[in-house]
Amino acid sequence: IVGNLLYYRYMNPAIVAPDAFDIIEISAGGQLTTEQRRNLGSVAKMLQHAASNKMFLGDNAHLNPINEYLSSSNQKFRRFFLAACDVHSLEEKFNVDQYSDLVTVTKPVIYISIGEIINTHTLLLDHQDAIAPEHNDPIHELLEDLGEVPTVESLIGENPLPPDDPNKDLMGKTEVSLTLTNKFDVPGEANTEMDAKTLLLNTKRLIVDVIRFQPGETLTEILDSTASPEQVKNTCDVVEINYFSL
């Protein structure tokens, strides 16, 4: 899957049409010759076989002598694809953790097409056990709320269209913006435990900000002592930066 994505989405187009991706410079009105495009197609075909470990057989039996080369090249591709999968975790990449949502004033917004929403919905339902193997994982509640996979028309609010209607694909490419919101961060008796946890975390953070500027041997001594104007200003500045208001 990774090999197919990397090769066909990024490598192959640049090889067969380098002029379309500004990889080579072509003068105004100029273009690659038929022979050049045929040669690039041959290179792409060779790399395609190497990437997929597909040997030349049958009608291409005359190319059998290079099958050994293709096999060895496939091992290089496999190492490359494996290395491409070795990436930072999402938390590290985007510098977020379980407390990030508590200090974020503006909710994140994503832009996604209707077709991508349906594909993501389908993948989540098909791989629930892999996504949340633990029975008590809160994500199960979210997965249950998903319901059945919706249709393009139902998401857009249009009447059902025939399967072969060309407008169906066009509607699937419609892009929408979604504001991400924590489903569990809702006031009320049903979320008393969650509200208490949020309050505790916010309180701890405020205390940490105070400790940074007010000295003392114990926490009680620090909280009971009178802060100087400078300490108050420094603490307020930090609190404001962290999106809290006193």
TrEMBL record:
InterPro entries to which the protein is assigned, alphabetical: RasGAP_CS, RasGAP_dom, Rho_GTPase_activation_prot
Gene3D superfamilies documented for this protein: GTPase Activation - p120gap, domain 1
Location of the Ras-GAP domain: 1-52
Signal peptide: none
Highest taxon above the source species: Eukaryota
Protein name, entry field: Ras GTPase-activating-like protein iqgap1
Organism from which the protein derives: Xenoophorus captivus
